[in-house]
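Quick start: what a row looks like.
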Amino acid sequence: MCTEMTSAPPLPSTPPAFRVLVLKTAALGDVLRTTSILPGLAARGEAEGRKLDLTWLTAEGAEPLLAGHPNINSVVGIALEDKQAVERVGEALSKVAWDQILSFDDEALLCELATTIDGGRGAISGAYLTREGLRAYTADVAPWFDMGLISIHGKERADELKTLNTRSHPELFASMVGVELGEPRLELSEEVLTRAQERLAGLTGPLIGLNTGAGGRWTSKSLPEDRVLGLAKHVDDALEVRPTFVLLGGPEERERHARLLMGLRAEVQVFDGTTENSLLEFAALIAGIDLLVTSDSLAMHMAIARKTPVVAFFAPTSAAEIELFGRGEKVQSTAADYCSYKRDADRSSLTVERLGAAVRQCLR
């Protein structure tokens, strides 16, 4: 008797992952705001029946801003001043067949790194190094890089385009990458959130963060100290329920912070958020307040990523680039050198009255 043999049905094949490499190393605020493209990339992979497998290459020290993000599989921190370390990373990442390399830094070293990793596969979208050793960028990212340091139009036209731009960073990047508009996201552990809540416990009234400095590089991003004090007094007088101001700043602002703390204590209720927080401790304090008044800074990007309402003020930089997603107000300079990226840009139109009105509007 002969028994007919039948073969087992073939097992369903698993579609390959959608492998994406993001190169974005600096500045910290720029790293954080670029996470707005990640939900769209994940959705694109799902639409193709593939799961997003995303690696993010960033500078050492920026890793905490990306760790735990649901759309990031791996974060690679790199010491950019260590040439051998950069070469090792390039060699390791070049062994992966990336579907897309999103190269968003225009420094020569990172353009070269992106080109090395791509290995001629044609997966780069963004900045790269030509065979002649010149920095260049692909046509799809022109809306952003045309306004930057390696613009094909030259610096004068690039500066003009930046001033004329009306599209936000998330809108521009979503359009360039070909995904839906998304929001940046910053993950914080329950432990770090709880510690911040404990520090803020017992404070009364609306908690209004004041992050009005700008470190050491961009003096004209900051609000003059006398105006910070005037703003706090103005808001304190205007609100029916007396607020508590949470004074925030970075290590480069210790002396400014100390002066502001002394001045504020004489006039309003103030809590010292200190200048000695880790990145995530700083972010957790921002997550725990009701409103942040801030310069164009890392603190602003943290607030946006944590959905904390924001009043942000702008003099040398572009307000149009910042998307608050309906959770805040922007106050921009009306001076002739607005968005000029000058270190001594005119801040005189950023008045106590204008900023105070924005604060009251947000707290309503």
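That is the whole record. The radius of gyration is 23 Å. The domain at 190-363 is CATH 3.40.50.2000 (Rossmann fold).
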